[in-house]
Amino acid sequence: MRTPPNPGASILAVSPGFLTTVQDLGRDHCAHWGISPSGAADPVSLRLGNLLVGNPPDAAALEMTLIGGSFKFERPSIIALAGSDLGATLDNEEIPAWQSMHVKPGQTLRCGPTKSGARCYLCVAGGIIVQPVLSSASTHILAAFGGLGGRLLRAGDVLLCGAQRVRVSMKPRAVKRRVLDALFGRGPIRVTAGPQGDLFSPDSQLRLATSTYTVKEESDRMGLRLKGPLLRRVADGEITTEGISLGAIQVPPDGEPIILFVEHPTTGGYPKIANVISADLHRVGQLRPRDEINFEFVKHEKAISLLREQEDLLSPKRSLQLI
Question: What is the mean pLDDT of residues 127-145?
Answer without folding.
Answer: 97
